[in-house]
Amino acid sequence: MGATANSPLDVVKAAYAAFGAGNVPGILELAAEDVDWAFIGAKGLPYTGKFRGRSAVEKWFAAVFATDEVQAFEPREFLAAAEHVTVLGWEKTRALPDGKVFEAEWVHVFTVRGGRVARFWGMYDTQAAAAART
Prior knowledge:
Layout: H1 8-20, H2 24-29, E1 31-40, E2 49-52, H3 54-67, E3 68-81, E4 84-95, E5 101-113, E6 116-124, H4 126-131
Parallel strand pairs: 1-6
Antiparallel strand pairs: 1-2, 3-4, 4-5, 5-6
Organism: Ramlibacter pinisoli
Protein name: SnoaL-like domain-containing protein
């Protein structure tokens, strides 16, 4: 069964397409005003933690881009059920500013309501990310 127009799967895939194009405003447009955003990552990173609302998520993306240079980012598997979409993926990233490269598998869980991302929860291989910063 394919995704319907504006289905949660469509919204999530559109967010990844915007990310791939470096279009953060496009991602924010797909988020609810009061989006609940959480990311589990290596301790001490500015993008690890909980964030609420579009402006906080915009700052979250700025922190990601200031801290990491994403060289490859691949959402590989989409698991959709009702308003939830879980995505399994992989990335190759250079930790800034020292330039160590790490590869990590990640998982992102989205809740989409009314055509907007209401909640995002993500995590990646924190050991690989931490090792790139030591």
